[in-house]
User: Which sequence fits this backbone?
């Protein structure tokens, strides 16, 4: 889990909620780990995004990269 602050000063908690390893036959280009972003400072729907193909954990991303991923994440 990691905590980030977006450009508007909101604090988000980022955590991997799906590792994409539930089945050995799934193509890793299609089924990647899913990151859930939960806003801690406002009532905003959770957002979800896939980790980049060459990244396996949140710790591998810089704060800027994680903030960019959060900006592209979609609500579901």
Assistant:
């Amino acid at each position: 889990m990691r905590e980030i602050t977006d450009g508007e000063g909101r604090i988000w908690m980022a955590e991997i909620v799906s590792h994409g390893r539930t089945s050995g036959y799934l193509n890793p280009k299609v089924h990647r780990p899913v990151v859930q972003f939960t806003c801690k400072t406002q009532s905003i729907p959770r957002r979800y995004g896939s980790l980049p193909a060459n990244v396996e954990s949140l710790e591998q991303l810089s704060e800027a990269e994680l903030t960019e991923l959060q900006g592209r994440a979609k609500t579901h």
Remarks:
- Helices lie at 63-72.
